[in-house]
Amino acid sequence: MSMISSSPPARRTHGLAQDVFDFLVEQIRSGALRPGDRLPTEVSLMQSQGVSRTVVREALQRLQASGLVETRHGIGSFVLQSPAPALDFRSPVAKTQRDVVAILELRICIETESAGLAAQRATRQDLADIKRALDAIDLHARAGDDAAPYDFQFHLQIARATDNPYFVDVLSHLDPAIAPRARLDPASYMSRVNSEHINIYEAIARRDPEGARAAMRTHLSNSRERLKQAWRVGQGDAI
């Protein structure tokens, strides 16, 4: 296995998970981690990057979604022999409220079509993965945990179901930290959007492309309006 640098990446504003993701992508692109190599363990990455297990797992999920690595249960994550090509751009940095709204508008365009294609192309396994992600959001929200990584995984699973790696690649570069998710009261917030997620899943499951597009557009448009409302009442950090 190739040796890699253990120095942590610089901390930027768009999220610790993106930092770890960028660090590992650079190791793969530079050849420090080669096809077939096993990635450092979660514990090793936690120590070298100075982050939590949740951050490491989210970064690994993004690598997996981008087609750069595969995870073998009980063994570890390995660099793929022929990684899927990744778009060469950095995650947009949302510095202002206007930036956040602009990125949400981009997500509406991308994910509306993603949902429609998923309704046409999803396999039985894709549907099971989307449902599993949906259940995880509800489980962690009800427990009072931060459900944001699971919410993002739900959207990634839908992108995967398009059978078009570029939907996954684009979405995986949009930092989930800028999505409108309440951190102050996750259980209460998720109870409000749970039905929207269910509508998306059910439209995909019944092979209804137009219904899936409409459900996704409604969900993200409502998310944009909820975020604006949170800002109006002085809860701008609840995203």
UniProtKB/TrEMBL annotation:
Note the Pfam families from the entry.
Answer: FCD, GntR
> Which SUPFAM superfamilies does the UniProt record give?
GntR ligand-binding domain-like, Winged helix' DNA-binding domain
**GO MF term list:** DNA binding; DNA-binding transcription factor activity
Q: Which UniProt keywords apply?
A: DNA-binding, Transcription, Transcription regulation
Record-linked InterPro entries: GntR_C, TF_FadR/GntR_C, Tscrpt_reg_HTH_GntR, WH-like_DNA-bd_sf, WH_DNA-bd_sf
Query: Where does the HTH gntR-type domain start and stop, copy by copy?
Result: 14-82
DNA-binding keyword on record: yes
UniProt name for this protein? GntR family transcriptional regulator
Question: What SMART domains does the annotation carry?
Answer: FCD (SM00895), HTH_GNTR (SM00345)
